[in-house]
Design goal:
With 321 residues, this protein is of the alpha+beta class. The protein contains ten helices and 16 strands. Strands 6, 7, 8, 11, 14, 15 and 16 form a seven-stranded mixed beta sheet that branches. A three-stranded antiparallel beta sheet has the order 2-3-4, with no helix packed on it. Helix 6 packs antiparallel against helix 7 and helix 9 runs parallel beside helix 10. The chain starts with 6 loop residues before the first strand and ends with a strand. The structure holds adenosine-5'-triphosphate. Adenosine-5'-triphosphate binds next to helix 5 and strand 13. This is Kinesin-like protein. Belongs to the TRAFAC class myosin-kinesin ATPase superfamily. Kinesin family. InterPro entries: Kinesin-like_fam, Kinesin_motor_CS, Kinesin_motor_dom, Kinesin_motor_dom_sf, P-loop_NTPase. Keywords: ATP-binding, Coiled coil, Microtubule, Motor protein, Nucleotide-binding.
Amino acid sequence: MARLMVAVRIRPLTQRERANDHVTAIVKAHGDQAVSVWDPNDDALEDVLRRERQREKLFWFDGVFDETASQTHVFDHTVRHLIDSVLHGFNATVLAYGATGAGKTYTMLGNETSPGIMVLTLADLFSKITTDNEAGAGNYDVVLSYMEIYNENIRDLLSGKADILELREDAVRGVVVAGITIAPVHSPEEVMTLLRKGNKNRSQEATGANEVSSRSHAVLQVYVTYRTTDPQSGQRMQRFAKLSMIDLAGSERAAETNNRGMRMIEGANINRSLLALGNCINALVDPAKKNKYVNYRDSKLTRLLKASFEPSPTRRDRCVG
Ligand SMILES: Nc1ncnc2c1ncn2[C@@H]1O[C@H](COP(=O)(O)OP(=O)(O)OP(=O)(O)O)[C@@H](O)[C@H]1O
């Protein structure tokens, strides 16, 4: 059974936005679970029929973070609780979704002074693994891959090569990317170095809506393998989990961003894969559907995430000899 948690983060206005009078929406946090959205241009309406209409629309979420929320606060109240599940063999996926310029890359990756969810998660994972190892309870291996999906093509961000990689089915690990760099990691510092290296290879361009807009989905996949020996039978066992953390490309309306040519084709591919992702999530969480058909094949992103969205067949400890 897949569990879904949806949280919203509101970022501070940029200088450019503060200087610009034309605001299309005002988003405000109400406590830690509700957000109101309001179009200030509605105030100028002379229409008597609409004057009494409730201007603010209220939306509810599992978590809401206002402009003052720090990276660690967001991490503590969204992703931190997933780490124990991953160490117990459950797959988990964290997605940052939103309009271009909304703060997805800042939230997922952050910067040197304010590291984002990817780095904070790995730091916490390593800290728990160290505690378990010291208590004699664990023998964990952590490896990761970092890729981008750009115009429906998968590229390895760690190798820096422009080769397009294919998806393959693997009996134990589910869908895997053939030929991708799998890097062993032992500390959050190593992770930061790899992510920084990978991001230099990411497809970013200036668009009408963001000066440094990510034009691809960046997918960090962390594979955690736990090995142990059954004290009674002497059998060697292992369990395996995959944690995917994804900085999605910005959703956008072509008319609003004034994108043309290549930027517009990228935008169409981005929106198509975001639609496929939305369809899969809706099909998975809809309680009314008994025999669910989830169409993962509509995009590379959803094919890649199939194993993470479905109950993990690898969750049980497997006997390896
Ligand atoms: N919570 C925040 N606090 C401070 N600055 C932020 C915050 N969120 C975003 N920013 C800043 O806002 C700008 C846009 O953010 P970012 O590039 O992360 O957006 P994005 O959603 O990834 O956009 P795109 O989809 O176009 O790549 C950046 O300069 C970023 O540093």
